[in-house]
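Report of the visiting student (M.T.), summer placement. My assignment was to run the structure pipeline on a short list of targets and document each run. The first record concerns Pyrroline-5-carboxylate reductase 3.
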Amino acid sequence: MNLDAQQRIGFIGAGNMAFGIAKGMLSGNVLPANIKVSAPSSMNLGRFQELGISVTHSNTEVVCGSDVVFVAVKPHMIPRVLIEVSQHITKKQIIVSVAAGVTLAMLEELLPENSIVIRLMPNLPCLVQEGALLFALGTNAKGADGALLLSLLHCCGLVEEVPETWIDVHTGLSGSGVAFGAGKLLRDSGKHPAQLRAEVCTPGGTTIYGLHTLEQGGVRASVMSAVESATQRARDLGKK
Ligand SMILES: NC(=O)c1ccc[n+]([C@@H]2O[C@H](COP(=O)([O-])OP(=O)(O)OC[C@H]3O[C@@H](n4cnc5c(N)ncnc54)[C@H](OP(=O)(O)O)[C@@H]3O)[C@@H](O)[C@H]2O)c1
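After the run finished, the structure tokens were exported:
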């Protein structure tokens, strides 16, 4: 049996990013029966259940039943969640955080000594297997742990191990980049562009800060004016 299919995968947090990764993984060898997701409310759990994934309100249940645990809550929730589950984490499990801006050092500080930690920066096109995912290994993570993660995520898109210093750059470029326009996601999701944009904008997160800067620079007006100018130029050239 394939190694991926034997792994028990947990997600703490059932938001847009957790769903994107889970959906991407299911297009590989990971089985829905081997995934469990937790969130405090039932608001986001239905879409996981529709994929055959089991759900719970208990983060501890997810940790105790998983070999690889993705922590996919908002960055400010990370300390609270890790402290809550810390006593149940073993040295065999791999803890993968997707939280923007939360460093390996911060994660290792919050987790029991010698925990295997990986910092992953995914993006929402994982949903349509077109993601760009970078990860950095923590102090106790070995090459084999990275290889396992890579194998689990390969159907989410391009996945690469990098030095941690690259992760923040990737967050600005690709984690947030989707909000600035992603054709396949738009075409395949059937969603309105404004809805997709909202899904990648974690309130108070990196993407909304980037969008604020774009709006300050008048990006929409610039794009409209650019199309108008080019159209006008084409008309003018046609008259000559
Ligand atoms: N969205 C992106 O494109 C993107 C890209 C790269 C990285 N990230 C990172 O991914 C993380 C999640 O972002 P998101 O956009 O998926 O956020 P989100 O859609 O707001 O989802 C957050 C999830 O966390 C759950 N949650 C809140 N408190 C919790 C607790 N105490 N225990 C367990 N779960 C809890 C929420 O539960 P309810 O369902 O009950 O509300 C919700 O399901 C963030 O750290 C962000 O930096 C996001």
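The CA atoms of residues 78 and 99 lie 8 Å apart. The domain at 3-180 is CATH 3.40.50.720 (Rossmann fold). I thank the supervising group for their guidance throughout the placement.
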